[in-house]
């Protein structure tokens, strides 16, 4: 049964082509918002906390600071509303899921940048 679900997902879900990114990277996600019959593009820029799942059901979590309040947003990788993803900085972290990043503030919340 699980194989059948995986087969259907792989066949019928459209795959989006995005650059490679992982936890610790700072990315900007441009996505489309519909308000009534109008459409507009909005962006969400923050640090990737995690990537979860595989295949067409993969998701990623982004965290940004809005003033003094932390805001997290979970995006499915194959969301049709996502127009593009830009990788702004590549960070060097030792873990795939950096949940500890939520408690850090100020200078402790910096992630070392990888030059490539």
From TrEMBL:
Top-level taxon of origin: Bacteria
The protein's matches in Pfam families, at most eight in alphabetical order, are given as: Ribosomal_L19 (PF01245)
Tell me its family: Belongs to the bacterial ribosomal protein bL19 family.
Q: What is this protein called?
A: Large ribosomal subunit protein bL19
Q: List, alphabetically, the GO terms of the cellular component aspect.
A: ribosome
Q: Does the keyword Ribosomal protein apply?
A: yes
Concerning InterPro entries, the annotation shows: Ribosomal_bL19, Ribosomal_bL19_sf, Translation_prot_SH3-like_sf
Q: Which organism is it from?
A: Urechidicola vernalis
Which HAMAP family does this chain map to? Ribosomal_bL19
Protein task: This protein is located at the 30S-50S ribosomal subunit interface and may play a role in the structure and function of the aminoacyl-tRNA binding site.
Question: Which keywords does UniProt give here?
Answer: Ribonucleoprotein, Ribosomal protein
Q: Does the keyword Ribonucleoprotein apply?
A: yes
